Amino acid sequence: MGLKHRIKSGLRGLYARVLWGTGLHRVVDRCSRPRLLVLYGHCVDQPETNGSLDADMKISGARLEAILTALRRSHDLVTLGEGLERLRSRNAGRSMVALTMDDGYRDNLHDLVPLLERTGARATVFLEGGAVAARELPWLHSLGWLVGRLGATEAAARVTARLGDVPGAPVGVTDAGALKRKLKYDADPIRRDAVLLELVKAEGGDPAGIVDDLYLSREEAQALAASASVEVGGHTAHHPVLGRLGVDAQEREISGGAALLRELLGEEVSDDGQAPLGASGHVFAYPYGRRWDIDEHSPGMVRAAGYTCAVTTHAGVNHRSTDPYLLKRWPIHDGTALHEVGTEASGGFELLRRLGIDLVE
Question: 35-135+215-344 maps to which CATH number?
Fold first, then answer.
């Protein structure tokens, strides 16, 4: 982390501690326009089902429960669809917080749902169509399995040998993070996915078994969607960087993921391709979700596929005027500070943004 980011992080923490610790966040909340803070993560930490995933993808059940319990004292805990519907109706009532989880891991049913029931919270879970509905191993988990087995340096060498002398080959890469970034942004996605899957099989891995260990089964996904605490949404077919795809390939990923989700849930959209806001299957999360991970075509394709909104991974709060296909979200993990999340939920950081000061992004 550079000096600029360290200074910003320190100021953010100090400002949030003052507002949250003194109770001034309540005053700011009452004086601010209605808002929806969307939180996002991937997993409730459960070693038996997601122990192989990176730490920043997980949050302990105790930590998540503490955050939701604290926020519920001053905010309504809603699904994404419900929160947007209330904002648009001009009858939002209290400001709102929506918890979202990406990808569709098994803990989302077995650990998240009981936690939601205990806290009275609700959540939105975005499912990867290829992994959950079609049982296909995503490239990121092929890579994760290989790095775990071979180490980053050897995994990069094996991938390079298979890809050959082409742009995006991770020549000389020795760091797992750098390997992931190189393959994510520079490699041809079709060839990359095929090579990683070939290597997993060559090293004795079982792609179907990896999927079954990590992701909800079709039956589990249906049970999740049937829970009164959960709204289910789409997350493409194969979790690509949409902005790196051609228009046709991007459309196939978005609409194909929507079709897989509708088949999985037994739902159909109306004749005009739309569905009521908040209905399961009709909210969407962009894979990776940064502004450079999508392009100018992405929001329109999401809308055309029948989704009524889409979330990014840029931090902030959402208002009635926020573009519904470029909604903001705040990441949560075990390092998340309650006073910072609470300050954002209460409009504290938004107050600074109106003054031209952004301590978050």
Answer: 3.20.20.370
Q: Considering Cα of 50, then 217, then 298, then 310, what sign does the dihedral take?
A: negative
Q: How far is CA 94 from CA 58, 72, 198, 230, in A?
A: 29, 10, 52, 21
Tokens 């100018």, residue located: 296
Instruction: Say whether 348 sits in a helix, a strand or coil.
Output: helix
Sorted by sequence, the CB contacts under 8 Å of residue 189 that are 6+ apart come out as: 139, 240, 241, 244, 245
Q: Look up tokens 């978005």; give the residue.
A: 254
| Spans of all domains in the chain | 35-135+215-344, 139-210
User: CA–CA separation, 19 vs 322, rounded Å?
Assistant: 25
**Global pTM?**
0.93
Other C-beta atoms closer than 10 Å to the C-beta of 89 total 10
28-66: pLDDT as tens digits: 999 988 999 999 999 999 999 998 898 999 999 999 999
Structure confidence by residue, pLDDT tens digits, 317-340:
999 999 999 999 999 999 999 999
Of 350, 347, 266, 256, the C-alpha closest to 305 is 256
